DNA sequence: GCCGTTTTCGGCCCGACTGTTTTCAGTCG
């Protein structure tokens, strides 16, 4: 995504936070928050848009469009500067502490002059919070604890780690007597590339028993909250797990609700409201008549509270006193979506990135699934840095039912792998021989080339012509300038032997940032030269990521979802690649390794002479 | 401050848990 979009998005988010901290209108804060998200995720570069173009962005109206324009004209937004002058940056940082929101942060600043996390720690140590309204002993303890957590780094884990943990917990809870259903939801079900916490959902005849089962697991370091419908724990690895227990008839609504994302849920609830319905985690309900009649009065109260910065009355009373309308549906997600006039939307699309509009228009993509993939096109063996033999890898590929499978060991310029022409040709003979043992599986002999700093690859054209497929990747010189890196990768695309650009940004999640490259230029080159971009399924890469995939697809680029397996077990990581591709709205037609072999071979011929 | 197939004004998603409170505000998801 273009940088200007992210910059403006960050500024609007900051403004939203500052409005909330200063006790401004809560609805106004929320609008800025929504605008921040839509700007950051908008598909056009906002710095190139005029006022009308800006107002075409969802949640951007006259006022916000003017602020964006002002930002590109002057380099700042006066309204933001004004609030910055009133509220030190450290106060906003305070709200990153769990359990400390905008209201309490402002109290700390107003009453005690606390303007940073360190200030807060000092005040706690000096006992200076004593007597402050709303800050009792438990709150002090929670704040200290929150600061500890904050300082232990971001706390998000990768998709592989989160999936393993979630499956362990769901497995354990499913065995608890009385547990009827159990699964995970949340960002993990949506397959976000990192996961900040786990949401586990269960139906149980005996909620207490299943709560006890969770809090009793060996991996529990701390019980954060314990109720009869919700329990939260923190694992020894620092990950929070929320378990919700719902009645069986609420399963679909609860699964929909706890899968999120928050932005997607806001949209679905709004749609329900417009149809006179109410959607909660307990189901889709009709809104009773008298509540309609009372709308004006209630609205007035809400409006006033909103202006005072208070909150509206929760609907809990209505539930308790039985004023709630009748349950319409909620047994399955499909029912819930259908009743509000939408087809079921795959979890990986639920980010409010246009899926609601597409669902309404009947143009939701039929996203690619793991089952659509007919073969892995980027794998290694122990000839280079893999840990399994060629025979083992091929046997595993055959067992997965693949129609084709490419072996792509490293080329000589990754010097540590000691590849030679002779070794490669010898492997090719072995591949051909092995192929005869697997009549249903077509083996492709390939290689993973190194794109050198100038954009050249390992072998001359005539040697490259002997491969069925060539992946080419950046493995070194990650710090080149943007111009050099762009020229380097574009040049690789223009090489007639190169079929796939492997892990295109070379990032390692949480360890190495993506290389600085003009991705738009790369997408253009890929589309022009029939070079596919890889969706590397390894959970520490997921490269390209979802947003980049969306952008590349708009250029007409094709993709290959590959595991880059270095071991037999890695072939199973494919699902994370499929999930990431879904988040990028890819259909089987966009993905070359879902195609029949003939079509794939035609694509792989590219610009080669033979 | 944005938005509209009920509306260009009057709404804006909904509920659980905690802590400190004695009826509820704040935070979180």
UniProtKB/TrEMBL annotation:
CDD domains: NT_POLXc, PHP_PolX
Start-end of Basic residues biased regions: 304-313
GO MF assignments: class I DNA-(apurinic or apyrimidinic site) endonuclease activity; DNA binding; DNA-directed DNA polymerase activity; phosphoric ester hydrolase activity; zinc ion binding
Domain of life: Bacteria
Catalytic activity: 2'-deoxyribonucleotide-(2'-deoxyribose 5'-phosphate)-2'-deoxyribonucleotide-DNA = a 3'-end 2'-deoxyribonucleotide-(2,3-dehydro-2,3-deoxyribose 5'-phosphate)-DNA + a 5'-end 5'-phospho-2'-deoxyribonucleoside-DNA + H(+); a 5'-end 2'-deoxyribose-2'-deoxyribonucleotide-DNA = (2E,4S)-4-hydroxypenten-2-al-5-phosphate + a 5'-end 5'-phospho-2'-deoxyribonucleoside-DNA + H(+); DNA(n) + a 2'-deoxyribonucleoside 5'-triphosphate = DNA(n+1) + diphosphate
Residue ranges the record marks as coiled coil: none
Annotated ranges, domain Helix-hairpin-helix DNA-binding motif class: 52-71, 92-111, 127-146
GO-annotated biological processes: DNA repair
InterPro entries in the cross-refs: DNA-dir_DNA_pol_X, DNA_pol_lamdba_lyase_dom_sf, DNA_Pol_thumb_sf, DNA_pol_X_beta-like, HHH_MUS81, Hlx-hairpin-Hlx_DNA-bd_motif, NT_sf, PHP_dom
DNA-directed DNA polymerase X domain segment(s): 3-351
Locations listed in the record: Cytoplasm
Ranges for domain Polymerase/histidinol phosphatase N-terminal: 375-453
Renumbered residue ranges of the record's region Disordered: 287-324
E.C. numbers: 2.7.7.7, 4.2.99.18
SMART domains: HhH1, POLIIIAc, POLXc
Keywords: DNA damage, DNA repair, DNA replication, DNA synthesis, DNA-directed DNA polymerase, Methylation, Nucleotidyltransferase, Sodium, Transferase, Ubl conjugation
Cofactor: Mg(2+)
A single GO cellular-component term on record: cytosol
Functional description taken from the UniProt entry: Repair polymerase that plays a key role in base-excision repair. During this process, the damaged base is excised by specific DNA glycosylases, the DNA backbone is nicked at the abasic site by an apurinic/apyrimidic (AP) endonuclease, and POLB removes 5'-deoxyribose-phosphate from the preincised AP site acting as a 5'-deoxyribose-phosphate lyase (5'-dRP lyase); through its DNA polymerase activity, it adds one nucleotide to the 3' end of the arising single-nucleotide gap.
Protein name: DNA polymerase beta
Native organism: Actinopolymorpha pittospori
